[in-house]
């Protein structure tokens, strides 16, 4: 079901969750899929984002969320927690994940992974899922725009992002996620040339949902935005006591 919801021009909207309560709220308001945010989950567990939280705790949180709802759950698995592909696939299957996000940043090194190495890793992950008879939906995150240095390099960044997108789709990814790409012309070029479904992060400066649909985007994520807003509202309420 999750794979079939990735329709270019009719984007799957994912208000990312961080715990069981937020997951239940997403389902109660009619969204067909629950997606976790590593930043929000890590914060709720007392850690920073970017694999600072132990994999076991992050996966346990994902399992609680998956058990609490009756819709597909896609898990932000960060960069895979340095797990072997078969082990990561088995762990995601155990927690009940229908899909996952996997980013191409090496948090240990603090750099982007080589795209061919990342593609080989994704291919091994896809093969492991097939071996385990598991239809895992893989959203391959492309992090080149997180490290970008402004509009002057935008064209080069789009070219590099497309190179990675093509490699990741060839390796078996179901969707690619050029996180932080927000400029309309660059987004349009990326979507038209990526070669498969594209996920966009809903952030300040990005096109509206209607505009993203017109561009042919297939999936829209909110990342940790709603978690931050919820915490800000909670603090604001506390100050009014």
Give an overview in words.
The protein is of the alpha/beta class. The chain has a single domain (3-239), classed as Phosphoenolpyruvate-binding domains (TIM Barrel, Alpha-Beta Barrel), CATH 3.20.20. It is built from nine helices and ten strands. The chain has helices at residues 20-28, 38-45, 55-68, 85-95, 115-131, 154-170, 184-193, 209-215, 225-239; strands at 12-14, 34-35, 73-76, 99-103, 105-106, 111-112, 137-142, 175-178, 199-201, 219-221. The strands form three sheets. Strands 2-3-4-7-8 form a five-stranded parallel β-sheet. β7 (137-142), α6 (154-170) and β8 (175-178) form a beta-alpha-beta unit. α3 runs parallel beside α4, α4 crosses α5 (115-131) and α5 (115-131) runs parallel beside α6 (154-170). The longest helix is centred in the middle third of the chain and has 17 residues, at 115-131. The protein is globular, with a radius of gyration of 17 Å. The chain starts with 11 loop residues before the first strand and ends with a helix. The mean pLDDT is 97.
Summary?
This protein has helices spanning 20-28, 38-45, 55-68, 85-95, 115-131, 154-170, 184-193, 209-215, 225-239; strands at 12-14, 34-35, 73-76, 99-103, 105-106, 111-112, 137-142, 175-178, 199-201, 219-221. It has 241 residues and is of the alpha/beta class.
């Amino acid at each position: 079901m999750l794979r079939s919801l990735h329709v270019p021009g009719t984007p799957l909207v994912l208000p990312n969750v961080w715990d069981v309560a937020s997951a239940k709220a997403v389902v109660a308001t009619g969204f067909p899929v629950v997606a976790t945010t590593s930043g929000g989950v890590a914060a709720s567990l007392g850690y920073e984002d970017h694999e600072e939280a132990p994999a076991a705790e992050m996966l346990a949180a994902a399992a609680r969320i998956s058990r609490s709802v009756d819709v597909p759950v896609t898990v932000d698995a960060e960069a895979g927690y340095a797990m072997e592909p078969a082990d990561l696939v088995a762990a995601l299957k155990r927690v009940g994940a229908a899909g996952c996000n996997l980013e191409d940043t090496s948090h240990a090194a603090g750099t982007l992974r080589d795209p061919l190495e990342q593609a080989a890793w994704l291919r091994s992950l896809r093969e492991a899922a097939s071996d385990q008879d598991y239809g895992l939906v893989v959203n391959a995150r492309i992090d080149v725009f997180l490290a970008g240095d402004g509009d002057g390099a935008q064209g080069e960044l789009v070219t590099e992002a497309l190179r990675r997108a093509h490699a990741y789709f060839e390796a078996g990814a179901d969707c690619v996620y050029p996180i932080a790409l927000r400029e309309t012309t660059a987004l349009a070029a990326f979507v038209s040339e990526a070669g498969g479904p594209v996920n966009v992060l809903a952030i300040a400066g990005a096109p509206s949902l209607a505009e993203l649909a017109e561009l042919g985007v297939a999936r829209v994520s909110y990342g940790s935005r709603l978690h931050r807003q919820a915490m800000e509202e909670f603090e604001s309420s506390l100050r009014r006591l």
